[in-house]
Write a structure and sequence with these properties.
The protein is mainly beta and 284 residues long. The protein contains 4 helices and 14 strands. It has one domain.
Length: 284
C-alpha cells in the first residue's frame, strides 16, 4: 500500500493520529469570516452553543455522522485519573452574559461545548461551574469482567489498575491493543439520567504517538490513557471497546462498537472535526 493511502485527502481538513500518520491541517473551506457568520446564524437561544471545533475518536463505519468527543486526561500526584475541565469564566455573547469553561490546550480551544449534544447539554456536569472534582470513577455494571471483579463502582480510576494494559485481552479481537474501563465523569450525586459515561483505554499505541511529540496528543493524553464521552453521535446510545462479541460480525472487534445501529469508531484515530453544539438551558 502506498504510504499516502492512509492519509485523509487534503480537502477533508481532518487530522489523523496513531495509525502512522500525523498531518498538519485545519478545518478546510471554513474561513474565519465565514465561520463567524455561520456561528451567528446558528447560535441557538440558551447558554453557549454554535459552531464548535473539537477532537474525537473517528467514526469509521455505520450511520454515526461524526467522531465522539475526546475527554482530555490528566493524572494527579497520587496516580488518579481526571478528565480535564477548564476554569469557568463569565463572558458576553450577543449581548448576553453566560458562563463558559474554555481554555487553550495543545494549540486549540478546548471547551465544555465539545460535549453539548445528545441531550448532554442539559446534564448537571456540563454546567461550566458545576461543583464537581473531575475525577473519573468506575461505572456500575461494567461490560468488563476485570472491572467487575477487581475494582468497586464509584471508586476513583487509578493508573495501577491498568498495569497489564500491554497484554490484556478478553477474547474479543486481538489481545494487547489496550485495556478498557467504563467510567463516569462530573456526575457525583446527580440522577442516573444525567450521568456522563466515559470510555477509558490505556494503550501502547497512544503512548507511543504522544511520545513522538505531537502537541495535541502530548497535551490531552497521559501514560497511554485516552478517553472519550461515550455517547454515540447517531442516536446517543452507549457503545463500547471490546465489550460485545457481536462486534466481530461487523469487523469491529478491535474498535468501539455501538450495537444499536452498528456504528463503529476507531479509538486509536483522533481527528479534528466540527459540529453545531447545542445550547445549555438558559441561565436567565
Amino acid at each position: 500500500m502506498p504510504e499516502d493511502d492512509d492519509k485523509y485527502p487534503a480537502e477533508s481538513g481532518r487530522r489523523r493520529f496513531v495509525k502512522g500518520v500525523v498531518g498538519s491541517a485545519s478545518l478546510a473551506g471554513l474561513g474565519t469570516a465565514t465561520a463567524a457568520s455561520i456561528n451567528s446564524a446558528t447560535q441557538p437561544t440558551g447558554a453557549g452553543g454554535g459552531i464548535t471545533q473539537y477532537y474525537g475518536v473517528e467514526n469509521i463505519a455505520g450511520p454515526a455522522p461524526r467522531a465522539m468527543p475526546q475527554v482530555p486526561i490528566e493524572i494527579d500526584s497520587e496516580g488518579f485519573l481526571k478528565g480535564l475541565w477548564p476554569e469557568p469564566e463569565t463572558v458576553t455573547e450577543q449581548g448576553q452574559e453566560i458562563t463558559i469553561a474554555e481554555t487553550q490546550l495543545g494549540g486549540i480551544t478546548y471547551s465544555s461545548e465539545w460535549f453539548q449534544y445528545c441531550g448532554v447539554q442539559t446534564y448537571p456536569g456540563v454546567e461550566p461551574d458545576a461543583d464537581q472534582d473531575n475525577f473519573l470513577r468506575y461505572a456500575s455494571s461494567p461490560p468488563y469482567e476485570w472491572q467487575s471483579e477487581e475494582v468497586e463502582a464509584g471508586a476513583k480510576v487509578h493508573v495501577d489498575d491498568f498495569e497489564d494494559y500491554q497484554s490484556w485481552g478478553n477474547g474479543i479481537g486481538k489481545s494487547g491493543l489496550g485495556k478498557p474501563a467504563l467510567a463516569t465523569w462530573r456526575s457525583q450525586d446527580v440522577p442516573a439520567s444525567g450521568t456522563l459515561p466515559v470510555q477509558i483505554i490505556r494503550s501502547e499505541r497512544i503512548k507511543q504517538a504522544a511520545d513522538q511529540g505531537d502537541q495535541w496528543l502530548s497535551a490531552s493524553t497521559q501514560e497511554g490513557f485516552v478517553a472519550n464521552l461515550n455517547k454515540c453521535t447517531h442516536f446517543c446510545c452507549v457503545p463500547g471497546f471490546k465489550s460485545l462479541r457481536d462486534a466481530r460480525k461487523f469487523g469491529a472487534a478491535d474498535d468501539i462498537y455501538c450495537q444499536c445501529h452498528q456504528s463503529v469508531y476507531d479509538p486509536f484515530s483522533l481527528v479534528q472535526v466540527s459540529f453545531v453544539a447545542l445550547p445549555r438551558p438558559s441561565e436567565e
